[in-house]
Design brief:
Length: 592
């Protein structure tokens, strides 16, 4: 009997031992967090009374290994682990923790005659260009109704309904590295601000990198409009219209020379890791601190390469950088010559001078293309032929070449740098209201929040989500985040429920007097765009309002208990309208 008990205990121990590694592996796949306050303590155990292991700083990113209540265990340098308070960090959204910025999620073909491209995910964002039917684009990011795309002409957001995704072919086996020539006799110097390097000599060739103006690349050979160059221990193709070819000063070009452009990057995070490769998963090569400025050597979508120590380079995430132009750059008038200017709207005025009150010389059609001669006060001077020129407002055109894309300030000018907390109601074990068709409130509030988040980020706002996954967050933690960040606005997003299945409409709540203005602006915008019953703005004694010392509003965006309204709420059209209305309402509020 005793022997049987011992054997049983051994079996249990063996089973338990085999379970823990799998559990740890699962925890390691939970994602990453980012520190969202200046400095926070990392503790031995998930308790404020536990000893402090170390400190981590704003902007730093760590792998999640375990979670307990409102605490998260992270992996530190050297493999050590520690616990941080969940209300002081932000989970990195899955798309930000992937290589989607470097490798396209998919490729798609434009299915409309003309597809307008915008600088953010929504119709309220400025049109920066267009693509014709049949044009192929790489999808970099998805936002339910909008996708961020990249082509040889433009990078921006487009309506998903006018793009048809292509089935990806199986990747071909990678060719062995081409042997370098004994000597390189020419150098290609980049003359555009950002030039794509492609795998093949064609506009639809896969983009494998991007370089800045002034970068010198060893010239290998020419093929029509394309030049083959050495790039990162391999080869690639660039369009010869955006380079100057000159004799090499040396036959030894074993590495790509550094950029001569002088484009600068200033660190905006308190402390930022520099990585060996352009990825959040790249090995840490070093660390830089806030307000340090470096010259950008190379760019790859959301990453820039810098020399952070003498003779030592690495990659920094561009969302923690502020780019500026070096004073030694060539004058804009010289740089933009030869850029192609494409008219975005029918009837665009071409004027005699760079002034909205100047004489109109002619009206251009949408899609017309001109060559730029110069730029003056955000107006492009265009060559009309026979020695004549005219001016067009820079925000009425798209630019292909080295000229800057001019943007007319819209709602984003009121939202830029504003701290906005977006609080998707419920989450985790708290489902909220369950609709008649089984839809959970916690899932729909997150959909709305993510759509609004992307719009605000595109506008330059400092948008922060209280949760971006199906996670339970206490009400105290949600309010604490509002105070921690000194939020300019706090939006708690909900969907309503009632015992009466015919209850309908949107309601916006506030409690304190300092919250009323925000609530009314948001509700005014919602009632004008969302076609549901208007239930008005009211005072409500909710925790996230009562305990919140910042301007805050709680929004009930429709009734899930109403079968017809539930069907409307879960549609992509309604979700886009609700997010757009909240975005506009915030812009109105900050414009007061």
């Amino acid at each position: 009997m005793e022997k049987s008990i011992i054997l049983c205990l051994i079996s249990i121990l063996l089973i338990t031992a085999s379970f823990f590694p799998a559990e740890l592996k699962a925890n390691a796949e939970k994602g990453q967090i980012q520190v969202i306050t200046d400095v926070i303590n990392v503790r031995e155990a998930p308790d404020l009374a536990s000893p402090i292991v170390t400190e981590v700083s704003y902007g730093e990113i760590y792998q999640i290994t375990a979670e307990r209540s409102n605490w998260i265990q992270i992996t530190l340098e050297g493999g050590k682990k520690g616990w941080v308070a969940g209300w002081l960090i932000s989970r990195i959204r899955q798309k930000e923790n992937s290589n989607s910025e470097l490798t396209p999620l998919a490729h798609a073909v434009v299915s409309a005659d003309t597809l307008r491209i915008r600088n953010g995910p929504g119709k309220q964002f400025q049109i920066i260009g267009s693509l014709t039917g049949g044009k192929e684009a790489a999808i970099l990011e998805k936002n339910e109704n909008w996708v961020k795309i990249n082509t040889d002409e433009i990078t921006g957001w487009a309506a998903a309904e006018f793009l048809t995704e292509k089935k990806e072919e199986k990747p071909k086996s990678k060719k062995s590295k081409e042997k370098k020539q004994d000597s390189v006799h020419k150098i290609a110097e980049v003359t555009a601000d950002g030039l794509n390097i492609r795998e093949t000599p064609a506009m639809d060739g896969r983009v494998i990198g991007k370089v800045t103006r002034g970068t010198s690349l060893p010239f290998l050979k020419e093929n029509g409009d394309w030049i083959k160059i050495e790039y990162q221990e391999s080869t690639g193709w660039i369009n010869k219209d955006f380079v100057n070819i000159s004799p090499s000063s040396s036959t030894d070009k074993s590495r790509v020379p550094e950029s001569k452009s002088g484009t600068l990057a200033t660190i905006t995070a308190q402390s930022l890791y520099i990585r060996e490769t352009p990825s959040l998963n790249g090995k840490v090569a070093g660390r830089v601190t806030k307000n340090k400025t470096f010259t950008i050597l190379e760019e790859r979508n959301s990453w820039v390469k810098i020399e952070f120590l003498e003779g030592k380079t690495g990659w920094a995430a561009s969302w923690f950088l502020e780019k500026t132009s070096n004073k030694e750059q060539k004058p804009a008038q010289k740089d933009i010559k030869g850029s192609k200017i494409k008219i975005l709207y029918n009837g665009t005025n071409l004027r005699e001078k760079a002034d909205a009150n100047s004489t109109i010389m002619r009206r251009a059609k949408e899609g017309e293309i001109f060559t730029a001669a110069s730029i003056q006060n955000n107006w492009y001077q265009l060559q009309l032929g026979k020695g004549k020129t005219a001016f067009v407002a820079g925000w009425m055109v798209s630019v292909n070449g080295s000229g800057p894309q001019i943007q007319k300030p819209g709602a984003e000018k009121h939202l830029k740098n504003k701290v906005i907390i977006i609080d998707p109601g419920h989450g985790g074990r708290d489902n909220g209201t369950t609709g008649t068709q089984g839809n959970l409130e916690k899932n729909i509030t997150l959909r709305t929040a993510l759509l609004l988040y992307d719009k605000l980020k595109a506008a330059g706002a400092n948008a922060i989500l209280t949760r971006n996954t199906d996670t339970y967050i206490s009400l105290e933690s949600r309010v604490r985040l509002s105070h921690q960040y000194n939020a300019d606005a706090f939006l708690s997003i909900h969907y309503d429920g009632s015992a009466e299945n015919n209850a309908s409409g949107i309601t916006t709540y506030y409690l304190h007097g300092y919250q009323e203005s925000l609530a009314k602006e948001l509700h005014h915008s919602l009632s004008g765009l969302v076609k549901l019953t208007d239930r008005g703005t009211r005072q409500g004694d909710y925790h996230v309002l009562r305990e919140n010392k910042r301007s805050a509003a709680l929004l009930e965006l429709g009734y899930l208990s109403n079968p017809a309204e539930e069907q409307t709420i879960v549609s992509g059209k309604y979700q886009e309208e609700a997010a757009a209305a909240l975005y506009n309402g915030l812009a109105y509020y900050f414009n007061e």
